Amino acid sequence: MASAWEEVKRLAADFQRAQLTSSVQRLSERNCVEIVKKLLEQKLIEVIFTVDGKEYITPKHLVKEIKDELIVHGGRIYLVELAQLLSVDFSHIEAKASELAKAEQGIKLVLGQLINSDYLNHLAEEIDEKLQQSGQITIGELTKVYDLPADFLEEEVKLRLGTIIHGQADLYDPRTIFTEAYITQHKYHIRGVLSAVTRPIQLTNFINQYGFPERLFHSVIEELIQDNRLTGSVSGGRTERSSYIPSIYAKSQNEWVDSFYTQNGYLEYDSLVRLGIQDPKNHIKKRYKDESLMFLSSGCVGGAIVEQVEAAVDEALTSGSWVDVMPLLPSVFTVEDVQHILNSVLKVKIKQNAPIHTFIHTVVFSDLFFQKCLEPFNALMTEKAKEDVAKGKFLSKLQTTRNSSGKGEKQESKTKEERRKKAAVGKSGGGTQGRETKTKAVKKKYKPGEDSESEEEYIGSSLSKQGELEFLTVVEIEEKLVSLPILHECPEDLLSELAQYIYRPLTKKYQEEVKSAFLSSTAASSSTRKKTHGELQDKLNTMFGEVHMFYKGVKVFQEDIQIQLTKHLLKTICTDMVNTVVNYLAIEHRMYAEKDASISLTSENRLKLISKLPENLKDPLQKLHNSVGGKSVDDFLIQMDNVLGPGVCDMVAKKMDKKRERQLVHTHRQELISQLAECSDPALCLHLAVLLIFQIQTSSMLHASGKFVPQIISFLQLKIPEEVYKVLIDCQENVVKQLTRGSDDEKEEIQARLKELVPRVKEVATTYKRVAEGSA
Fold first, then answer.
1. pLDDT at 443 over 50
2. Kindly report the CA angle at 617 between 615 and 618, in degrees rounded to 5?
3. The pTM is what?
4. Which of 406, 451, 562, 610 is deepest in the core (most CB within 10 A)?
5. Across residues 590-607, what is the average pLDDT?
6. What number of CA atoms fall less than 13 Å from residue 243's CA on the CB side?
7. Are 651 and 429 in contact (CB under 8 A)?
8. What is the mean pLDDT of residues 702-727?
9. What H or E segment, with its residue span, contains residue 400?
10. Distance (Å, rounded) from C-alpha 644 to C-alpha 89?
11. Given pLDDT bands bounded at 50, 70 and 90, which one contains residue 7?
12. Which of 477, 478, 479, 481 is nearest to 372 (CA)?
């Protein structure tokens, strides 16, 4: 064991100096295994384990064995096979093979196999032998035979062409190789056959008929033509439609083409194709390089035909008539061709600012003739505008167009709000009068008659939206045009297109007519609208103040009663205010007439009206609509203040102060006293009396229905004198009995009792004085 250790150490020293002699190749003694492992751990030696783990091999010797195996296998071996033969893991074989391929120029690693230069030279000799036998060979064929990549084979073959491989590659296809004899043989054959041709032939059929190699054929024929060994030309390049045209035939073709062009001034592509010219457009370009030709989809025209069209257009413009260019041009030209010629002529006229109208692609109108076609509609337009305004059609259509005003009116509202803020700067004073002055300054957003220029701008912008009032349909315009004498000889298609073309100008002109008629009809009612606006402003301010005061009365009750009274207030007075505002804005935006201002709106109808209003009004009105269905009067008051202010109603929203509150409380008290004096119904008398006593005792107005009378009396029990409470509770009990008792005797007794109580209730309520808290 000791001697083995010394021997291994000596070997390790040899490894480090890389002086391992060829006599020391394998380490197979079993008693050295542990020693070698220790040396490996200490990195004193570098060896590679075999697959079975019983033997070790140095990396340098592994490379030598790979080279030996490569030579033994004829210069080509797979790495997998090497791994099996040398009993070494494939990763080591792959790594050493890569290093070997990089280090030695004559060895290559291709698709998991090592190949040396000897094998490639032998391969080239085999390829040359096959090439000499067949005359041609392709890289694709070699790839299948030798199972090597096409790019690799192409590169190696190219290196050995002219040396080991006696042949040459095709200029247009480097992967095809021919022998000199093969090329010469086919060159003579091709020259002989084509020399006998007297008319154009398609080269694809020619190649198939005589069995010429297609890869070689095109190169040979181009060389023969270039060397003047063939008198002809190839058209179509190397495509399937390429053809060979003998010079004798080309000469007769050119003579025919020249003769036809000289006589007619144009050339048709199909005619040239029938003549045997496969690429007529390029043929014409080469043949007439110095001619000024216009190339179209079906042919080409010379300058004479273009000048003829230009003269016809000039005559139509000068005489104030129309001209159809189609009959002036050859029948072989399509509508697109005629349009192309016409556009080239009209470009010059347009630059000269000549008014021109083109219809159905080929008909040219002078502007004077076009105006003559519009004149018959003027009288009908004026008459129809007055009729539509009188029947209310314009007002209905204006309502529709307002719904699409959206962004424009939002921007206008924003601009006016900015002007309003600027106007506020520098104004002296405050309070109601100062605010009144500011809001009046912008109160002409959509009041017809207050500012004629603003009204005209409003109607004009509305008419530009979708759904504008129509003058005549396209069909009706066409029927009118048919009856005009100046259009009797026009094509039928022209009348239809002309009707569509003038539809927009007529409609636009009609909008001006109907706007003028409408402004005339609405000028007289401007003062009435001003008065209505002022009255409505006062009414809404009063209702706004009442809601504010009623809500103060609601707050004195407990939470459960507060909620019920709040909902009642929102569903009655607040809802009436919303309906009043929506009706007013609907009239102002011409959704219906002023006589409908008192329309009672359901929640659904109110939403429909709001959705039809301009975009800048929808959001605040939607919030106001939602507030009456909620549980907060504060929210309603905020939304109503926004709606009454600038940008929506443009009204003066008067501030609530102590003086105005006292006025509202006094007015409401007098109304209750007046109603109570005239009332004879016991239930209503009790209701009014309770509200009156509540207001006197709490100094707060209350809006409540008859079903809240018991809760109000219960609230007042500890706040009013006992004798007053007894009168109220006695009247309440009898009113309830009157509604629930069934026998006639009982009803008569109750009615008699109520007859006595009603005067007493009235007296108590009208003479009631506020009692201090706790003294009752």
1. no
2. 65
3. 0.39
4. 610
5. 68
6. 19
7. no
8. 88
9. helix 393-402
10. 93
11. low
12. 481
CA–CA distance, 299 with 280 (Å, rounded to integer): 9
Type of residue numbered 165: I
The mean per-residue pLDDT over the stretch 436-461 comes to 43
Residue recorded with tokens 């592994």: 62
The average pLDDT across 591-606 equals 66
Task: Identify which has the larger pLDDT, 532 or 52.
Answer: 52
Q: Report residue 557 CA to chain centroid gap.
A: 57
Instruction: Give the tokens for residue 662.
Output: 């006292």
For residue 465, pLDDT over 50 is answered with: no
Rounded Cα–Cα distance for residues 434 and 654 (Å): 11
588: helix, strand or coil: helix
Note the pLDDT of residue 431. Answer: 36
Strands (E), 33-129: 48-49, 56-57, 76-78, 107-110, 113-116
The pLDDT of residue 139: 85
The alpha carbons of the chain give a radius of gyration, in whole angstroms, of: 54
> Distance between CA atoms of 86 and 72, rounded to whole angstroms?
13
Do 402 and 610 contact (CB within 8 A), yes or no? Answer: no
Where are the extended beta strands (E) located within 189-325?
A: 201-202, 232-235, 243-246, 266-268, 294-295, 299-301, 322-324
- Strand arrangement, sheet containing 363-366: 322-324, 363-366, 356-359
Q: How many CB atoms lie within 10 A of CB 28?
A: 11
3-state secondary structure of 251: helix
pLDDT on residue 29? 47
CA separation for the pair 79, 112 (Å, rounded): 6
Give the angle 11-16-20 at the CA atoms, nearest 5°.
Answer: 50
How far, in Å, CA of 114 to CA of 503, rounded?
83
On the question of pLDDT at 432 being above 50, the answer is no
Give the residue extent of every domain in the chain: 2-97, 119-246, 434-656, 660-766
Q: How far is residue 568's CA from residue 576's CA, in Å, rounded to a whole number?
A: 12
Whether residue 553 contacts residue 702, with contact meaning beta carbons closer than 8 Å, is answered with yes
Q: How far is CA 458 from CA 131, 347, 472, 612, 774, in A?
A: 92, 40, 24, 17, 64
Please say if the pLDDT value at position 304 is more than 70: yes
Q: Looking up tokens 């309520």, which residue turns up?
A: 765
List the structure tokens of 775. 């003294």
Q: Which two tokens stand for residue 737?
A: 């009995």
Q: In what order do the strands lie in the sheet with 107-110?
A: 76-78, 113-116, 107-110
Q: Which residues contact residue 312 at a Cβ distance below 8 angstroms, ignoring those fewer than 6 apart?
A: 323, 325, 328
Q: Above 60 in pLDDT, residue 637?
A: yes
Looking at residue 44, its pLDDT comes to 64
Poorest-pLDDT segment among 183-187, 399-403, 760-764:
399-403
The sign of the CA dihedral 69, 73, 74, 77 is negative
Indicate the average pLDDT of the chain: 76
pLDDT computed for residue 9 by the predictor: 58
Write the pLDDT tens digit of every residue in 342-398.
888 888 777 666 677 788 778 887 888 888 888 888 888 888 877 777 666 666 666
Structure tokens at 534: 């002022």
Write down the residue that tokens 């129809």 correspond to: 384
Residue 43 predicted with pLDDT over 80: no
What does the alpha-carbon distance between residue 31 and residue 446 come to, in Å, rounded to a whole number? 114
Name residues whose C-beta falls within 8 Å of residue 731's C-beta, 6 or more positions apart in sequence. Answer: 682, 685, 686, 689, 754, 757, 758, 760, 761
| Tokens, residue 244 | 């060979």
Cα dihedral 100→103→105→108 (10° resolution)? 30
The pLDDT value given to residue 42: 64
Using alpha carbons, select from 3, 93, 18 the residue that is nearest to residue 48: 93
Q: Where are the alpha helices (DSSP H) in 352-392?
A: 367-374, 377-391
Contacts of 277 (CB under 8 A, 6+ apart): 235, 245, 253, 257, 283
Q: What angle do CA 406, 601, 706 make, to 5 degrees?
A: 140
- What is the SS3 assignment for 304? helix
